[in-house]
């Protein structure tokens, strides 16, 4: 038996978990559900020794224990399978599973003995076939996850924790994983998992606990509850007037058109986004919303279909083509894909404009107009309320929110008719969020075509005119904002069921009157 | 450059920052001129301790010894700021030198000189295309072309140096302004450093070089022509290596297929001492050239003080690591 007793976790000023007491019965599968930021992943991390509780204790077999590290958790028989796999891509499956635990003689690894003991584990739990002789980098994501699970099993745990195990898997791969998890339970393992999909909870779990704002609000046998009850438990506070209001309205001109656009793990998408519209795209992590955003920005290439800006089809071979056609992108991963660390706020903000052909910031012969550049950067900093109010400081010195404003400001300086925002408020503070929303609204009011991708439903309901939902690689909708509320949107993102909102086609695919 | 940026920023932002302006400028000056300060310190120390340091024969010796490395370090700075590296510089100096020199007797100095820089640029093109369009790392590409160019130089000459070069070339290589204090070839280095710094600091191309080195993905998403800029950077490095070949041939009055060995390592050290980061996105041409001068002054001064050449090599190594170590503590002003 494992559980937590009166556990609170504080990160800085926020309480991620508030006085949570929860017991997981041995030999069962326990689902942890909740919205983004509800604390469900934190709870899993407390159980796995990743996060040390600020107050309260972890309980194992009736006794309080202290887990200072993942290593300690493993030693006590608690295994954690992360969403981000922690494998060595160049090593074989066998080597990955055995890492640090290899049977050895005189410092030499006994590979035959290692293989034998791994195969023993596989047979014991009737594990699906995975080629463990190949470098794991050459396996599919689902197979890599199996290796990760085997790695966990090899350390002979009694409890296995899964963090969003199906998030990056296809539908078929997910059902295979679900079968495996059930087999593990039937062999006697205790399993807890975090999920974004309610249908999985009902298919897989024996017991479900719901968290909201760090508090445990519901814990029940799955057989004693239903989707509606879970959704109600998950819903947070009512919408406040945190979101700025629109002054304009979408026009009837199509600004961005996707025709049968398909990519890996993205089923064909038909979508019209109008000038002056904020189109929200909802979807949990791994739903494919990310992929759709990357495809629209030319960052990932579509396998089929066409993307048009206005009336003109874009010949998309990379982000440069998207940009030339007038599609700007604010990627989700700021650090990795958007910022230029070590370079100034000014350079960070003006580069897209500088690299434009016939740029107002560049003289003939490629010489920069430094004065103009500084003036543009100053304008960006002022308009988006970037703090500190300096254009020469390195962008590294800014907070996440201010960095994001600089990234968004690029597309203010290089005016693009279409803007794709991928989770633009991720990891930024409330004040900066508000500034981002205001900026987005102002862009839409001035006739820009905006696609706003987010895993955070409340903000989509706050800023979008229409909202489409990605569910397991498929686009549902778009639906008019008025057709949706938090509960309906949550149901859509978590079940993919359109029952409560009706068939999206029944109101002409969410068209505005022409 | 830094001063102008500062002023215009304050203009754009209104009155704030005015009292801090002077402090800011001083901080910026100190930051960008750590190499210059170290250089001045070394000159003073050697000037006092080694009486012959400032003599009319020693000053041009220092300049002659730094001229070629300084030109190479300009090219290397471009490459390193994109987070790349060019290991082929030294053997390009050898290859371009022997081929260009071999036709000088028949076709004249000018044609030979052009041929040298063209060969340099072509090897750079080869490096650049491979780095920009394949997944082979720059280190490996240029390691390969280092070996290829060195081999080609030996094959072309049969291992024999080329003597009997036209006297006009030799006169140029050993001539000097200012009563013999300022060799002609160091003028080439100074011009290369100034032009290089302008291109890097004041053009769209230069801005793209920093952007690619700082974050390649973000550069792509910002519309920077990443492959094209990458190719061009290696072409510049190769071109300047060809120019270095011309300077070296003129100075030593010989084209030796074994010349230029390890020049690229000195150039890399110069860039790094000048604040360049091998991770890209940081560095400047001007301070790379100063870094080259610093290495040269250090070698010359320690020699005058009677330090053995073995110990000199050891000291140089310590200086390179020490410079980067000190550099890791200071905050550089951003581009």
TrEMBL record, chain A:
InterPro entries: AAA+_ATPase, ABC_carbohydrate_import_ATPase, ABC_transporter-like_ATP-bd, ABC_transporter-like_CS, P-loop_NTPase. One of its GO terms (molecular function) is ATP binding. It comes from Sulfobacillus acidophilus. Keywords: ATP-binding, Nucleotide-binding, Repeat, Transport. It holds the Pfam family ABC_tran. The lineage of its organism: Bacteria, Bacillati, Bacillota, Clostridia, Eubacteriales. Residues 2-238, 249-497 form the ABC transporter domain. This is D-xylose ABC transporter ATP-binding protein.
From TrEMBL, chain B:
GO terms for cellular component: plasma membrane. The chain crosses the membrane at residues 33-54, 66-85, 91-124, 136-156, 176-200, 231-252, 267-295, 307-326. CDD domains: TM_PBP1_transp_AraH_like. One of its GO terms (molecular function) is transmembrane transporter activity. The keyword Transmembrane helix applies. Keywords: Cell membrane, Membrane, Transmembrane, Transmembrane helix. InterPro entries: ABC_transp_permease. It is found in: Cell membrane. It is a multi-pass membrane protein. The keyword Cell membrane applies. It comes from the Bacteria. PANTHER family: ABC TRANSPORTER PERMEASE PROTEIN YPHD-RELATED-RELATED. This is Sugar ABC transporter permease. It comes from Sulfobacillus acidophilus.
